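FORM 7B - TANDEM STRUCTURE REPORT

SECTION 1: FIRST PROTEIN
SEQUENCE AND C-ALPHA CELLS:
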Amino acid sequence: MRSYFILMMCIVLFGCSNDASRDAQPDHIQLEDGGSVTATKQVGEYLFRLVVQPAGENTYMFHSGMKYMGRDTSHTIAHSKQVFMVDIQANGESILPPRTTTNIGLRTELTNEDWYTEPYEITLTQAQLEKMDGSEANIVLHAYFQGGQSGYEDEKKMILSASQALMQKEE
C-alpha cells in the first residue's frame, strides 16, 4: 500500500511539474510566406493568437491577441496596462531581462467579432541566441486578466516551440 501511495504521488507531481504540458500547446500552427508563424489556442471562452514575424536581423514582432468566443456578443475584462506578456525561455528559464508591470484597473470589452491585440518587438542578443541554441527553447504567451463573470484573476498561457517560430528560416 505504501509503495502504491508513493507511486501515485510521483505520477501526480510529474504531471503537475511539466511547464510545457499539452494543455498549453497551440491548437493550430500556420507557417506563412515571408517567415511569419501564427499559433492559435482556445481556452474556455477565449481564443488566443500569437503571430511572430521576422522584423530584421534577430528582431521579431510578436502580435498577441485574444477574442471572446462565449455565448454573449461581448464580454468585459479588467487588466493592468498590458494583458499579455511574451517570454522566451531556454530549458524553462527566461532569457529576456526582467520586466515590471503596473496594476492599473483598465477595462476592455471583448467581442466575438474583433481581436484585442498588443504588439511587442523583441531583439535577441548573441548571448540570448547562444542560450537557445541546442536547448529546448519556447515562446510563452501569458495572458493576465480578470473576467467579468468570475471576478477572479485569471492567467492563461500558450507555449510555442521557438524552433518553429524563430529558427525556421535556418531549417
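SECTION 2: SECOND PROTEIN
SEQUENCE AND C-ALPHA CELLS:
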Amino acid sequence: MKLNKKTERLIKRKAAELKKLYETPNPEVDKIISELRAEATKLPQNMSKEEEIAYILKKADENCDHIEIRKILNESNT
C-alpha cells in the first residue's frame, strides 16, 4: 500500500518526535533507576517469594520480625 506524501511526512515527523522524547536523558529518572539497580544487587539470591516479601518488609521497618512474618504468610497460604 502506497501512502501519499502528506501522510509520509506526518509519520516521519511523529517518529522524530517520539525518538527525541525517548532518547532525551532525564536526570530524575536516571537517578531512580540507578538507586533501584543498587538495591537489587544487595538483595540476597535464591529466596522464596515469602522470604523475599519478608526481607523487603524487614528492610522497610527494622522493628519487624522476620520469623513472625513467615508465620503470618504460612497461615495465609493454608
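SECTION 3: OBSERVATIONS ON SECOND PROTEIN
The chain has two domains: 1-42, 46-78.
Helices lie at 5-23, 27-42, 49-60, 66-77.

SECTION 4: SIGNATURE
Preparer initials: ____
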